[in-house]
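Chapter summary example.
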Amino acid sequence: MTKAYFSYQIKMVMIRIFLCFLFLSACQFTLTAEAQIIEEIKTAGQIYAYAQIHGDYEILLDFTYPVLIEKAGGREAMKTILKQIQETKIDKGQRLIKLTFGELIQYSTNTTEVHAIIPVTTTTKVPGGTITAESNLIAVGTEGRDNWYFIETTSINEQNISKILPNWDFKLALPYKKAPVYKEDRH
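The structure predicted for these 187 residues follows.
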C-alpha cells in the first residue's frame, strides 16, 4: 500500500462525508421550509379565526381570496354579504364561539401559489345548545407567501374547485364533509 493510495482513500472518505453533509443539509432545509409554511398558515389562521369570532369584516375581507371578492362584485359588495350572513345568524340566535385549526395540514405548491387543506372545528352557540362542526378550509398563499387567504369548503367539491382555483393540485383531495353535532345545554 502506497502513500498515494492512502491519500486517495482519505480524499474519497472526505468526499463521501461532504456529500452526506450536503444531503443532510438539503433534508434539513426541506423540513425547515415545510415547517415554515405550516407555521405561516397557522399564524394567518389565528387572525382569521379571531376575525370570524368577533365579526371583524375588514380583517375577514383581507383574508378572503380576491377571486371571490371579485365574483361578489367587489370589496364593498362582499362586506355587505358578510354582514347579511352574520345578521341572519344573529337573528336565528347563532353565534360562533370557537374556531380551531387541526394539526394535519396538507399542502402543495405550484409556480404562483401554495394551496393547503386545513381541518377546522367550529363551535356555534345556538338556542338550547351548541353545534360542533368539523370541516376544512383551503388556504392559499400568494406573492411568495406574503399573503394568505382562506376559502370555506362548504360549497366546494372536486368538480367546481377549478372555477375558483384554476391551478388546484388534485393530489390534494378534499375530505368528505361531516355532519355537525348538536349538544343540548344542561340546565
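To summarize the output: The mean pLDDT is 86.
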